[in-house]
Structure formats: C-alpha cells, structure tokens
Amino acid sequence: MQTSEKTYLDMCRYIMDHGERKGDRTGTGTLSTFGYQMRFDLSEGFPLLTTKKVPFRLIKSELLWFLKGDTNIRYLLQHNNNIWNEWPFKRWIESSDYKGPDMTNFGIRSQQDEGFNEQYKEQMDKFKERILADESFAHTYGDLGNVYGKQWRNWESSQGEWIDQIQQVIQDIKTKPDSRRLIVSAWNPEDIAPERAALPPCHVLFQFYVVNGKLSCQLYQRSGDVFLGVPFNIASYALLTHLIAEECGLEVGEFIHTLGDAHIYTNHVEQVKTQLAREMKPLPSISINMEGKSVFEVETDDIELNGYDPHPRIKAPVAV
Questions:
Q1: For residues 73 and 71, what is the distance between their CA atoms, to the nearest angstrom?
Q2: Which are the catalytic amino acids?
C-alpha cells in the first residue's frame, strides 16, 4: 500500500477528530490544529492525491509562474489557470473604477444565493477577459503584489539590492551540497501588508538537503487549507524538488511538509468525509524534459504526468 496519500488522509482524520473550532479572516470558521508534519518518499511515486482528482496542469503552471518571478495573473489566465483570480478581483470590485453590481463578500454570497452567483460569474468573466485583452488594465488590477515569484526571484534588501534566491540556492546545491543554508524564504515582514501583497505567503520557507546523491526538501507552511490548498502544496513542492534535482544532477529523496495552522474549513467538512470514504489508488509518476534548458526555461509541455487514475473531483468553495 502506498503511504504518501495515507499520510495526508491521516492528517485529515486527526483534524476532524481533534481539531479546535476557530474563527478566521474569511468569516467561514475552521477546525484547526497547530503543528503537524507529513513525510513523502518521492521514490514511491509522485504524491498527487488519488482519492479525489487534483488538476496537475494548474500545479505545473503555477509553479512555473513562481519560478519565472511573475506576480501577475495574466500568465496564469493565458494557461487557463484560475486559482489566483479571487484576490485581484476583490481589489478590482473594491476600487473606484468598478461600476458594476455590488460584489461585497462574493466568496460567501456566491455559495448561498444562486441569483447572485450568476452575477458573480458574469463579473468575474468580464474581469478575466479584460485582464487578457488589456495590458494596461492587467498591469493595474492583475498584479498580486510582492507574492511568491517576487520573493523567490527578486527579493529587495534594505540596501536596495536584488537577490535571486532560487538561482542562489541552485548554485549552492551544486557547489556546497552539505550546506545547512540551502534556504528560500518568501516571508518578508515589509511585504505582508495588504497594500503590498494580495495575500501574505502561506508557504513561507523551504530548505533543501543533499545526502547520498539525493535531494530532499522541507517546507514550513504557516497556514494550510487542508482540503483545497494543501494537496496543491504537496504536489507543487514535490514537483519543485524534482525540477531542482534535475537541474543539479541529483535523484529525489523526501518531501517533508511542516504545517503551522492546519485547518479544515467548516464548509469543507462534508467533502472531507466523502474523500476519507474512498480507497486509495496507485500513485502516478512524472517525467521532465529539461534537455538544454534551465529550470527557469521549462514550460508546461516539458512536464508530463503518467498513470494518474484518481477518483472524481470533489467541489468545495474557496474562502477568500
């Protein structure tokens, strides 16, 4: 039996059984636990959940977006990736330039009112179309601020210098593989204010570790939406580990996922119960074509998922 997915499902069961009820920024409410760690042996297979379908194409394009240092959703929309839309849309509908119907609390209202949900989808579609068609509008309303891509590739120091953390960590893995400083941080205290970043980084820091020709990665994530977000995070950092290992001529080892506030939103509880009732299937594998390319030049077509046969998707609302 594969253990990677069981590790995740065990966390879901633990939070369902032992999680404390807490309020949250979105007003939805959660079952929460503090401090939880999962380990995934990447030689066992690629840790993409099989008890529900997780769209790997979105994980690919988001990670490559991070690695390019991009922070504007225009690239994501060009790849039919909608997972970051709600945050710039919120800024748009709260701006003085927006003249459409009232979209206040659209995340919750769209789940409760079918008529409003149709209005919301119409306004979101118009927003996306304008982001794709109007470069000036995209520049103003499509940018998420100083989020992951900015911090990974263009960290600005207090001295006004620019630091490419990903390029630096790749160089250090190649030249100083025993270093205990193979770290990339996305948490810049200056940039967590809403006017500087749409959302403060949830996955705040990761560290690489090299031993016996294998590359492992540990992520510290301050906040994890266990049903919707964490499956993406697991697969994304597993993919990142594969990409960096390929760049550095190493095999893959483990991905270790350490969570601060690990929570299940109260409006995801029934979906989690559905998932826990399903049987796990064999894990897929991935293949990466990096011939003649650096990790920064890889495109979505260079990464293929093989043998993925999951149970159907389980829909759930995003808390914004």
A1: 7
A2: 202
Residue list, annotated binding site for dUMP = 25, 180-181, 222-225, 233, 263-265
pLDDT digits (tens, 9 = 90+) for 159-211: 888 999 999 999 999 999 999 999 999 998 877 666 666 678 899 999 999 99
DSSP 225: E
d(CA 65, CA 226): 23
Evaluated on CA atoms 234, 237, 240, 242, the torsion sign reads negative
* CA separation for the pair 305, 300 (Å, rounded): 11
Q: Which long-range contacts (CB under 8 A, 24 or more apart) does 202-211 make?
A: 202/229, 202/233, 203/148, 203/233, 203/237, 206/237, 206/240, 207/182, 207/183, 208/169, 208/173, 208/182, 208/183, 208/241, 208/244, 209/182, 209/253, 210/173, 210/177, 210/178, 210/182, 210/250, 211/253
Domain ranges of the chain: 4-69+163-306, 85-143
- For 257, half-sphere exposure in the C-beta direction (CA atoms, 13 angstrom radius) is 29
Annotated binding site: 25, 180-181, 222-225, 233, 263-265, 319
Q: Distance between alpha carbon 9 and the CA centroid of its chain, in Å?
A: 19
Question: Length of the chain in residues, anyone?
Answer: 320
241, two tokens: 């580990």
Question: What is d(CA 160, CA 158) in angstroms, rounded to the nearest whole number?
Answer: 5
For 4-69+163-306, CATH gives: 3.30.572.10
Could you tell me the pTM of the whole model? 0.91
For residues 183 and 206, give the distance between their C-alpha atoms in angstroms, rounded to a whole number: 6
The reported pLDDT for the residue numbered 186 is: 93
